[in-house]
Write a structure and sequence with these properties.
Layout lengths: L7 H7 L17 H8 L5
Length: 44
């Protein structure tokens, strides 16, 4: 699996995510944040 490497700006945004069942991606650069969330076990 290819791991997502976020830019510093997107990483700061991703750090705000708490583990959750649903995550909405509204304009965050080609779904990088949702993929990052899945790869980093932020889905519950």
């Amino acid at each position: 699996m290819i791991m997502i490497n976020l830019t510093p700006r997107l990483l700061k945004t991703a750090e705000l995510i708490t583990p959750c069942k649903k995550l909405a991606d509204i304009g965050t650069d080609h779904a990088y944040i949702p993929v990052y969330a899945l790869q980093n076990d932020l889905d519950r």
